[in-house]
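WARN  no MSA supplied for this record, continuing single-sequence
INFO  ligand: NAP
INFO  echoing inputs
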Amino acid sequence: MKALITGATSGIGKKIAEKLNERGWELILTGRNEEVLKQMQKELGKTEIIAADLSQRSEVMRVYGYCREKNIDMLVNNAGYGLFGRFEDIDLEDELNMINVNVVALHILTKLFLRDFKKRDSGIILNVASAAGFMAGPLLSSYYASKNYVLKLSLAIYEELRRDRSGVSITVLCPGPVDTNFNNRAGVTFSAKPITADEAAEYALKRAFARKFFAVPGLAIKAAVIGQRFVPSKLLAAITYNVQKAKKKAGSDERALDR
Ligand SMILES: NC(=O)c1ccc[n+]([C@@H]2O[C@H](COP(=O)([O-])OP(=O)(O)OC[C@H]3O[C@@H](n4cnc5c(N)ncnc54)[C@H](OP(=O)(O)O)[C@@H]3O)[C@@H](O)[C@H]2O)c1
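INFO  complex generated
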């Protein structure tokens, strides 16, 4: 069995790679950091690597081109990151790059591999969204919106596959805080206790192999995901603003957020 994992150089993607490797899977790993990819290849064996910047559409197509004749059984769309700040303050180019990685690359790979998987009526797609995918996220607005896209796109595909009684399955991982490099890149600290990347990866694979759609790891986040359905969306956005504001790294300017 063979899997393509995006964002495999760190955090949840790296743990998914290690866990599939322990289960005897062959891997194709991608990320921008070629040094880490080479190191992982050395450690894991039976692993191919392809360094790529998924914010560039041509690079996404190059990854697909590299993989298309390799009989991939599982696609793990994990690469992603967040940008913290008021919507009007975040640099437009930075934001569009993030949307390219979180949304466009995932969209392209999901569509192209789904077509291949449907031809042979087998294959697993594991898309990494977030608990953020269930709501609006002031101060991380585009990140939350990108994860809403991932969640809703995946759910729609799930229903199409279910109607077809397809052998192809799709699972969406929706974690709350996970202890990875995510916060460093977003420039925030957690306001709630994170789970480990190991826990998130293990749960994601368990749900994907069971062909379940939702993978929401941890009781607290499951309760929050269910609870938010009963809160009016504007009130939820106000609560989320305060949660996000509390994540701001110590030392940064509070007035820059509230004005
Ligand atoms: N940590 C959390 O609290 C949390 C919660 C919910 C959902 N998630 C989601 O989980 C996924 C994995 O994040 P993580 O928490 O494991 O964070 P992480 O440790 O920062 O890992 C992010 C991965 O994405 C890759 N990546 C980032 N920009 C890329 C680009 N332009 N091109 C190609 N690859 C790129 C990185 O690889 P390179 O740096 O080598 O390019 C890295 O392997 C993301 O989709 C994130 O939104 C995280």
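The longest strand covers residues 26-31.
INFO  checksum written, moving to next record
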